[in-house]
Design goal:
The complex is a heterodimer. By secondary structure, chain A is of the alpha/beta class. Chain A contains ten helices and five strands. In chain A, strands 2-1-3-4-5 form a five-stranded parallel beta sheet. In chain A, strand 1, helix 1 and strand 2 form a beta-alpha-beta unit. The radius of gyration of chain A is 24 Å and the shape is elongated. Chain B folds into two domains: 52 residues, no CATH class; 155 residues. In chain B, 70% of the residues lie in helices and 0% in strands. Chain B is built from nine helices and no strands. The chains are: A alpha/beta, B mainly alpha. Chains A and B meet through helix 10 of A and helix 6 and helix 8 of B.
């Protein structure tokens, strides 16, 4: 069954008003989001290795005043999306260190559409890596299953062990939600991996 | 669909209120062989009129409402008869109502879309029916008569059947229904008859859910009760 990816966000922002406002807006977007707050980059750096965040929202002040720490954070969180929360002037080269920015003058509609796009794109990346999208090897195994070969025959054909064939089959089932040979054959034919004439249904 | 918020259900709960809010209970009533017109009767009254213990009735009621039951069961040998009748009636529902209904939906879609995947789905379903028929027949041939022997006090100490054999044999019969749903929702493109596909998916989901509840009753209510009796 498909699991919705819960997006985790770390906010590094010293002002209570700004933080509370951000949190309120984030809640109002109705997205599955988990927010954590950090006083400064140091405290975030301590835990970020064990608990990576999808999105980091930071006051650009930290990028300017704590350059080294910020640089370390970027290295450690190369997969996270860095967003600046801007409410005063910062030089362009500071803002450029971030992937995106939100401004304190943004209205809710702008903010919400930004968050929606961001969250959806992150969720897509995560689903893409776990669900569907069979690897080339898995497709090969699937085609042999659909053409009626046994695990042993597939193993011989691909010069791999039966154990490996079984583990490919498990992965295929996880990804497609289909376990039986007949079901997998219909999957393979629907996705044009094999023609009906070459399947065991011929 | 309105859903009753989890509430405590007691023998004094008025059943009609629950059924109004939870139409899935209609099927449960049918499986128990009960009349749907329950006036303003309480669960206790209905159970007394129909020789079903309130424990068993509330247990299955909760299962139909919440999809599982948590309370410790205090069922007795007297619950075997209504339980077996419940299971027999649900077999009838699958065989005579749901399975043919699904077949009709598929046939209609195949008529409108003559493509290999949907034709194969029809074959897939036929194979499934053979498999599920084996499952149902096994229960009717071995399990229900065994339970009947318990009910009739006719069980010999050297009975050739034991519930453990059944427990080991009991397989997951709703899995292939889920496979069909996966194929229909994710992979099989249709050119025509989207309404047919929707109807098919709804029927499949209904049968999948009731098969799940059916197995739940067998695995978590019937089998433990029999094991308890066997061990006595």
């Amino acid at each position: 069954m498909r699991k919705e990816v819960k997006i985790s966000i770390a906010i590094v922002e010293p002002s209570d008003i700004i933080f509370e406002g951000l949190q309120l807006f984030l809640n109002k977007t109705n997205k599955q989001i988990q927010v954590s707050r950090f006083e400064n980059i140091c405290t975030l750096l301590e835990i970020v290795e064990n608990e990576p965040f999808h999105i980091l929202i930071l006051n650009p002040y930290f990028a300017q005043a704590e350059k080294n720490q910020f640089h370390r954070l970027q290295q450690k969180c190369s997969n996270s999306h860095f967003v600046a929360i801007v409410y005063q002037y910062y030089p362009k080269e500071i803002i450029r260190l971030f992937d995106d920015k939100i401004s304190i003058t943004d209205d809710f509609a702008t903010f919400s559409s930004f968050i929606h796009k961001l969250v959806d794109s992150i969720a897509n990346i995560h689903e893409g890596s776990t669900a569907e999208a069979l690897s080339e090897r898995e497709k090969e195994v699937l085609i042999h299953i659909a053409s009626g070969l046994s695990n042993k025959e597939i193993a011989d054909k691909l010069c791999i062990s039966i154990h490996t064939v079984i583990s490919h089959r498990k992965k295929i089932t996880e990804k497609t939600g289909i376990k039986s040979r007949s079901g997998l054959t219909i999957y393979a034919i629907s996705n044009k991996l094999i023609s009906i004439e070459h399947s065991f249904y011929r | 669909m309105k859903k009753t918020i989890k509430q405590s259900i007691s023998p004094d709960t008025i059943l009609s209120d629950l059924i109004l809010d939870n139409p899935q209970l209609l099927l449960m009533m049918e499986h128990f062989g009960l009349n749907i017109v329950v006036h303003k009767d309480t669960i206790r009254q209905i159970c007394e009129q129909n020789q079903i213990s309130t424990q068993l009735f509330i247990l299955i009621l909760q299962l139909y409402l919440y999809g599982e039951v948590f309370e410790k069961q205090q069922l007795t040998k007297n619950d075997l008869l209504p339980l077996v009748n419940f299971l027999k009636n649900s077999h009838f529902y699958f065989r005579n109502e749901k399975f043919p209904e699904i077949e009709q939906h598929i046939n209609k879609i195949v008529l409108n879309n003559n493509t290999p995947p949907i034709k194969l789905l029809k074959q897939f379903y036929k194979e499934y029916l053979v498999e599920v028929e084996k499952h149902l027949t096994y229960e009717e041939k071995y399990v229900f008569p065994y339970i009947q022997r318990w009910i009739d006090n006719n069980k010999e100490s050297n009975d050739s059947f034991s519930i453990n054999q059944y427990k080991k044999r009991h397989t997951d019969i709703e899995y292939k229904i889920l496979e069909m749903k996966n194929l229909l929702i994710k992979h099989i493109e249709l050119e025509k008859d989207m309404v047919g596909r929707r109807k098919l998916l709804v029927s499949l989901s209904e049968v999948e859910h009731d098969l799940y509840l059916h197995s739940y009753v067998e695995d978590n209510i019937l089998i433990p009760l029999i094991i308890n009796l066997e061990n006595r």
